[in-house]
């Protein structure tokens, strides 16, 4: 009997180790895909001045840049649609399939950007094709983010959910940093004529090809056990909801609205200080492009290092205090630091490092704090609508609005805008209950 007990214990230990190993491999596979996807997404903003020269009328450089940033913003409008469509699919059929489909779509969109002829060759058709490619990217991006948020939080241990799910934003930072590093490499290794003509297309072609390799990593991922548990009890849960609804439509809508306003305060400053800071320094402050990209690269590295740190801290002291700290500091520091950026690369590095270090508080807590407020059966759908919609309205428009305000000597309006949005987000989170360490089945 002792031998049988020992054998059973050993088998149980092996099963636990195997399950943990599979979870870790699934996290890595998700992370690699997130990294590549955010590289594809961010490289557009990094190379915006060169895309503007190639795909729009180059006679008016300011107008061409604004048009390029406008396409960047419009791409965000399809994120809520992608989040909604793929969110429904993820809730009904699983998270894994969405993560495979969105990677394939992102690859196709990047390839389309890489091979589209320039404005000089086909005129306005170049601008139209670029717009279509960005809409496709936005649609895929909404689905990818939605499924990743749900998936990572559902396979993570309850007491380490902040740390494990922070890998998403860690990889977002890696992808953005690689995009910036690519900008540094291209501007330092190619002359401007070649870079304007065809060099800017290389990253999009590289991203499209590399995504095929990522598909092989993702095909062996496990499905979320939290989803499978909920899905196996779907009929029973449907009956219970009809007899005694625990989540009324009013409650679901209220929760979705709260998440929308929370996301607004996280995405507006994030896109301002990541996707646009270097472009702002180059176009508005006449900073050398190579130096600006290097400065931004260093700042993004600080963000990447701090994301898992803040995720770990949130597992110890809670999600709310870490999040509220980020909002308050953003309100105070943005109007102080953004005007400090001048033609000196150090000004960009210092200001961007401070703000991206603070922004890491969101990267370390966001997937966990959202997942812990929504039951499994609605999680992907609510994440797929509230969050992408806020990103589209506030994050996607941030570069354009900031560029427009500064070009018209109305920088104060941008600071007021950020202050109002982040204040609303602070109030929303202040009224949330602390949820660190909660088991997701308790929400269900």
3D architecture notes:
The chain is mainly α and 444 residues long. It is 84% helix and 0% strand. It is built from 22 helices and no strands. The chain has helices at residues 2-46, 48-55, 61-93, 95-115, 119-122, 124-155, 161-165, 167-189, 192-197, 202-218, 225-232, 234-243, 249-273, 277-284, 289-317, 319-337, 345-363, 366-371, 376-395, 398-407, 411-430, 440-443. Helix 1 (2-46) packs parallel to helix 4, helix 3 (61-93) runs antiparallel to helix 4 (95-115) and helix 15 packs antiparallel against helix 16 (319-337). The longest helix is centred in the first third of the chain and has 45 residues, at 2-46. The model is unreliable at 1-14 (pLDDT under 50).
Explain the layout of strands and helices.
Blueprint: H1 2-46, H2 48-55, H3 61-93, H4 95-115, H5 119-122, H6 124-155, H7 161-165, H8 167-189, H9 192-197, H10 202-218, H11 225-232, H12 234-243, H13 249-273, H14 277-284, H15 289-317, H16 319-337, H17 345-363, H18 366-371, H19 376-395, H20 398-407, H21 411-430, H22 440-443
Helix pairs in contact: 1-4, 1-6, 1-8, 1-10, 2-3, 3-4, 3-6, 3-19, 3-20, 4-6, 4-10, 6-19, 8-15, 13-17, 13-19, 13-21, 14-15, 15-16, 15-17, 16-17, 16-21, 20-21
Features:
single chain, about 450 residues, mainly alpha
Strand content: under 5%
Question: What's the story with the biggest beta sheet?
Answer: none
Q: Low-confidence spans: pLDDT under 50, at least 5 residues?
A: 1-14
Give the termini distance in whole angstroms: 40 Å
Gyration radius from CA atoms, angstroms:
22 Å
Helix- and strand-based class? mainly alpha
What would the principal axes of the Cα set say about the shape?
A: globular
How many strands? 0
- Please report the number of helical segments: 22
Order of helices and strands: HHHHHHHHHHHHHHHHHHHHHH
Helical amount: over 70%
| Mean pLDDT figure | 82
